[in-house]
Specification:
5% strand; mainly alpha
């Protein structure tokens, strides 16, 4: 399957706080606007704007974030890039969410000494810095989307209705998504549907009660449903780095599944999830790449593959030249451990390792196993690939999905990588469709079985035993979905949420805790801590102490 090569433009992960980006006074607005136009011109001339790039310009200087500037189509699009750039922050997908916050649950664990006794190994406290940073950055994304939404319909802006709708649709999608990642980690949170101006923050703006979890989800659904009517179809967008109609439909399927599960248990939402997933299928655009491995090589080599990758976080650059301070940490944090040296392999902390539970889920012949879980490590001087032996515990093995050896951009930075990160893949849509069909009253069990088998057929060559599941009963299909999601989507930040909504989080963590071998090797010690530390209350995080101090109307989650 052919992809679309990203050939121009560049993006930057935000490294500055908003306070470091000074907003000009009214007297300087005109001069500042001239500078913005000049910076944009300087960037457009040498690089151009690739149609499939979201973050084409330096976020720190060239993405417009303040509402006063949204007066032209170009400024709206610059503001849109500013909203997307929030996803790429180091406190979200640019760093912490890549294995440092316990999202892997039963499929793998963090083995990173720097995060010992933090949320990274389930030693969770309301004062945890990464939890606070996650909370604040998600709300920063909400606010940037709100600022854009309050300007996009201005009739004075000269823009075609189609482009105006698409920008508005993206802003609604992002506002919904940022509220979603807050709700599934904290429960009910304050709903922010109006922008907070940095130059006029009142006491009232800061004092806001938590909405009920149901009300937050209803707002998310409303934003996503509206966005789906405004966004361009993926056949026009042709990239997963910006929201499309398919992305909205797929995200609605995910949100509805979360609402159908614990703690809301609105089981009527299963039928809605099936409906939204079916819309993605019926678009007749999406399909799986024949090669599971190639999906992740494409993320590493900046190849757009919109048929498989429906929504992804965009990173670009290697931290050199015009790409100084650009890129993300995909592969550097969650890759195969490799030391800092002059080779072209690429430095990696190797913080994510698999559990034996995940490893043993794969059946003989499943090609996903040795890509998702690296079958080798790098040893010796100079470093060479050394296959793990049969006697090596599977808890030693690194996440292998995001391999720096796949990167082609040279030189390889020890700080930044150009690899994109998946938020929604078509395989996920198929498995969500199967789950929803199985759970909804009167759902087509044979059709559910077929969706699972489409995913399995890619992974298991013709002639492989058990290439297809034969179950068409409820319990068999339920177990198949639970296991297949781990095999297919492991290390993509979804597992903990899945276990929570299935009501299996704590029991699953206890089960894997019993599988961890006894020993004093550092990774074994960290694996034992990770699984032993998990508690029933960890289905949600505590509301950060700092936020409760600022907003006196906030209340803490039960158990914290």
């Amino acid at each position: 399957m052919e992809g679309i090569m990203k050939t121009s433009g560049f993006n930057q992960k935000f490294k500055k706080n908003d306070s470091e980006i000074k907003k000009p006074t009214a007297a300087l607005n005109i001069e500042w606007m001239k500078k913005i136009k000049l910076y944009t011109l300087l960037l457009v001339v040498p690089f151009g704007f690739a149609c499939n790039k979201v973050l084409d310009i330096n976020a720190g200087k060239h993405i417009i974030l303040e509402e006063d500037y949204y007066r032209t189509e170009e400024q709206l699009k610059a503001a849109m890039r500013g909203a997307y750039s929030t996803l790429a922050e180091g406190t979200l997908y640019g760093g912490n969410m890549l294995g440092r916050m316990g999202f892997e649950a039963d499929e793998g664990y963090e083995a990173y000494a720097s995060d010992f006794q933090t949320v990274g190994d389930y030693a969770v406290y309301a004062t945890d810095a990464k939890i606070l940073a996650y909370y604040r950055m998600a709300y920063k994304g909400v606010n940037r989307a709100n600022l854009l939404l309050e300007s996009v319909d201005d009739p004075a802006i000269s823009i075609s209705q189609k482009e105006r709708n698409h920008i508005k649709g993206q802003a609604l999608f992002l506002r919904g998504y940022f509220h979603f990642i807050l709700a599934n980690k904290f429960g009910g949170v304050p709903l922010m549907l109006k922008a907070t101006r940095s130059n006029a923050v009142s006491t009232t703006d800061l004092q806001k009660r938590r909405a009920s979890l149901k009300d937050v989800y209803l707002s998310i659904v409303s934003d996503l449903e509206t966005s789906s009517t405004l966004l361009k179809p993926m056949s026009e967008v042709k990239t997963g780095t910006q929201a499309s109609q398919s992305a909205a439909w797929a995200m609605l399927a995910r949100v509805c599944l979360y609402m159908a599960g614990q703690p809301l248990n609105e089981t009527s939402r299963y039928a809605e999830a099936a409906e939204w997933a079916k819309k993605v299928k019926d678009a007749n655009f999406h399909e799986l790449n024949p090669s599971y491995e190639r999906v992740f090589v494409n993320y590493a080599t900046d190849i757009m593959e919109p048929k498989e990758s429906i929504f992804e976080v965009d990173f670009y650059g290697n931290g050199t030249g015009v790409y100084a301070n650009t890129g993300g940490s995909v592969g550097r944090l969650n890759g195969i451990q490799y030391p800092l040296d002059e080779s072209n392999i690429g430095y990696s902390n190797g913080i994510l390792r698999s559990s034996s539970y995940l490893y043993d889920l794969y059946q003989a012949g499943d090609t996903r196993r040795d890509w998702a879980i690296a079958p080798y490590s790098y040893t010796g001087t100079p470093r060479v690939k050394t296959n793990w032996t049969a006697q090596t515990t599977t808890f030693a093995r690194f996440c292998g999905k995001f391999r720096r050896e796949s990167e082609i951009l040279l030189p390889k930075s020890s700080v930044y990588t150009p690899q994109n990160y998946p938020i929604m893949r078509y395989a996920d849509v198929l498995l969500m469709y199967a789950e929803a069909l199985n759970e909804m009253p009167g759902g087509d069990k044979a059709l559910a079985q077929e969706q699972i088998n489409i995913v399995r057929r890619r992974a298991m060559p013709v002639g492989t035993p058990d290439r297809e599941i034969m179950d068409t009963d409820y319990n068999g299909l339920k177990d198949a979905v639970i296991e297949e999601r781990a095999r297919e989507l492991c290390f993509e930040g979804l597992r903990k949420n899945d276990l929570v909504r299935w009501g299996r989080f704590f029991s699953s963590m206890q089960y894997v805790s019993g599988l961890v071998p006894v020993g004093t090797t550092s990774y074994v010690v960290m694996a034992r801590a990770y699984y032993a530390n998990a508690k029933a209350r960890d289905v949600v995080w505590p509301i950060p102490t700092n936020e409760i101090t600022v907003n006196r109307l906030l209340t803490q989650n039960v158990g914290w």
